[in-house]
Amino acid sequence: MDVALTLLGATNAWITPPVVISVSALIFTLASFWWIQVRRGHPRVETGHVFSGAITGNKIILYIPLVFHNPAPATLVVADIKLRLSGGAGDENSPDRRALPKRMFWIAFHGSVYPEQGKHRQYAMPFAVEGRESVERVIEFQWDTPETQLKDGPYTATVEVLALPQRWRRRRWSSVCTFQLRTDLWSGNRNALMPRTNDPEFYEAIREVTG
User: Fold this and answer.
1) Residue 97: in which H helix or E strand, if any?
2) CA dist., res. 91 & res. 89, Å (int)
3) How confident is the prediction along the chain (211 residues), in pLDDT tens digits per residue?
4) Which of 12, 115, 168, 186 is the one with CA 20 to 30 A from 209?
5) What CATH number is associated with residue 73?
């Protein structure tokens, strides 16, 4: 008690060093349990340099491979996904100026970037990402009756995710991944849904080989 009186004064004499140590240990234990077992985080999303795409007069279709990583211990649910397109290298008369920015909607997901005949097409539905794990999805985005043919790339593509649950029952979208959509590298039939590259170095290497 003499120590308590010396450190904290007579009015707080009950706060002894053992009490302080015990309370601190309890707080540390509870905080550690929350951090290791209960904490909810935000998804981290990455993409690669290859995707599939097709642009026609009445539809734009993109198959974008995405990896969703949950860094927190608690499970989260990816409820919805959108792809926001903006930018472009066209001038003020380009159709992009009137059509962009534009959000493309999540229609389905696939098991491969390359469109495979006869494979099951899973329509958009929420999926779970367990704590400290990753989930791979090839997400199909569509834009019906587009006002542009996306000929003046590159464009800025931003993946937006609605992940649940959220605090106070909010439904806030998060921008989780941004990359360049290099439609200026598209070769061959732009109307055909086929693999494309977003990597200029890979594109040049292929051109050197194929001529």
Assistant:
1) helix 96-99
2) 7
3) 455 444 555 555 567 777 777 778 778 777 665 566 666 788 999 999 999 999 998 999 999 999 999 998 989 999 999 999 999 998 888 999 999 999 999 999 998 998 777 777 899 999 999 999 999 999 999 999 999 999 999 999 999 999 998 877 778 999 999 999 999 999 889 999 999 999 999 888 888 887 6
4) 115
5) 2.60.40.1890
Q: Are residues 33 and 120 in the same domain?
A: no
19 Cβ neighbours under 8 A, 6+ residues apart: none
Same structural domain, 65 and 110: yes
Tokens of 23: 């309370």
Q: Quick one: which of 22, 32, 136 has its CA closest to 78?
A: 136
Q: Which structure tokens are listed for 46?
A: 């990455």
Tokens 């904490």 appear where? 39
pTM value > 0.90: no
CB atoms within 10 A of CB 85: 26
- 10's enclosing H/E stretch is none
